[in-house]
Design brief:
This protein has two helices and 34 strands. Strand 4 and strand 5 form a beta hairpin.
């Protein structure tokens, strides 16, 4: 099936998918900031965070301000064993071990404690990806085993996610579309990659219960070297990636193929998450609103609601689940007053349509765009990650990118539901 025929089928499906609307109960500032820790080291751009079953926290990122043109440098990893109050640099191994990547990173941890980190290389002279590497640790990050999943020109945006059954899944994209592979032996071997979408970008990957997977395919691919407007859909699997079914996105959105239109909504990661009941969740921006969709039939139909509105532009959302019936979303808002980050916890009700939204006060990461002419706040990437901690609190990580004050690193933010 061609992408054009697929797009037509998905468009027809949309007529039947957008008729249900979720019931929303919003509680502004029901979350409160518990602590903020600025870790000054080197830039952790586009960070990711996971919590190991032991309680240890890991944060990854990439240091574009120092080694950005060398795609053979190891990615960065930090470890905290005191609930995020302090951090130390973890040793991922050397470039000769295969620990290579100066750009996008992702992490996941399996229920048995196996850690996965994937990273891509990016040639900043040619503006092209160089490879996707995967590192695996079974001893709490003490040692790592590395291998290349791909070493093709235009490799881009890898994601990794470990399922409850121990199977690990990875995707990335390039000139030939979106590739998928999996490992069922703790990352020792990976299946031969297959193309699950013939064009488009690997916008996000989510793993759910009972072998359920979802991939968000987006028009922008290969580090913005390709654009296919028809590649704007979901791929869903209910058999651990053996077969994939295309589904329409919950609502149509617009993309800027040039990435230069100041009036367009900035887009890159369009995030997905599963809850333990097998429901699939998605958040996206239409500009002035952050919208939320939930599907109880593997993405065939959706209930849609708005979880936040703004007098500016909402953009670059992220979404995660605690594995039960709670989700958390982050996003940015830009308006004439500046740039701010936002967080909400989404508590699922007893049915697909009900959701309670607990919001945190907005916060401002220490990240900036700096030129000789001006200085302005920056998202320093295409998302800020959020996870549920073991005690139910929420942890957010944002880059510290401040050349004016020579401050580089990341901020660890902890939020909790406000005590009544």
């Amino acid at each position: 099936m061609t992408n054009r025929n697929l797009a037509c089928l998905l468009t027809i499906g949309m007529v039947f998918s957008y008729i249900a609307f979720a019931e929303v109960a919003s509680q502004p500032e029901a979350l409160e900031l518990q602590s903020r820790v600025d870790h000054i080291d080197t830039l952790a751009r586009e960070p990711m965070i996971v919590q190991h079953p032991s309680g240890s926290l890991f944060v990854s990122g990439y240091p574009s301000q120092v080694t950005g043109r060398d795609w053979t440098v190891p990615p960065l990893l930090w470890l905290s064993e005191d609930d995020g109050r302090s951090w130390i640099r973890a040793d991922l191994g050397s470039s000769s071990d295969g620990a290579q990547g100066n750009s996008d990173v992702d992490m996941s941890v399996a229920p048995d404690g196996t850690l996965y980190i994937t990273s891509m290389g990016f040639d900043r002279d040619t503006r092209e990806g160089t490879h996707v590497a995967m590192g695996v640790s079974t001893d709490l990050g003490e040692t790592w085993r590395w291998q290349f999943l791909s070493q093709n020109r235009l490799d881009d945006r890898p994601w990794v996610a470990a399922g409850g059954n121990g199977v690990a899944h990875a995707i990335w994209n390039g000139s030939a579309g979106v590739s998928y592979t999996q490992s069922s032996d703790h990352g020792v071997t990976w299946s031969t990659p297959i193309a699950i979408a013939k064009s488009g970008g690997s916008s996000h990957l989510a793993v759910g219960p009972a072998g359920r997977l979802a991939v968000r395919v987006s028009p922008i691919g290969a580090s913005a070297n390709t654009f296919d407007a028809e590649a704007d859909f979901l791929l869903v699997s209910s058999d651990d990636g053996v077969t994939w079914t295309p589904q329409a996105i919950p609502a149509p959105i617009e993309w800027d193929p040039t990435l230069t239109d100041a009036s367009a909504v900035p887009r890159w990661v369009e995030p997905l998450a599963w809850t333990e009941d097998g429901y699939l969740h998605h958040v996206w921006s239409d500009g002035s609103a952050l919208n939320y969709g939930v599907s109880d039939d593997l993405g065939a139909t959706w209930s849609i609601s708005t979880i936040s509105t703004t007098d500016g532009t909402a953009f670059y959302p992220f979404l995660t689940s605690n594995g039960s019936n709670k989700l958390a979303a982050t996003w940015f808002v830009k308006n004439p007053q500046g740039l701010s980050a936002h967080l909400a916890q989404l508590n699922r009700g007893p049915n697909a349509r009900g959701v309670e939204v607990l919001k945190a006060p907005s916060f401002v990461p220490d990240a900036w765009n700096e030129t000789t002419e001006q200085r302005s706040l920056s998202p320093a990437g295409e998302y800020i990650p959020v996870i549920f901690l073991a005690n139910g609190d929420l942890a957010v990580v944002s880059p510290i990118q401040n050349i004016h004050d020579d401050r580089w690193g990341f901020t660890f933010w902890r939020f909790a539901v406000r005590s009544k």
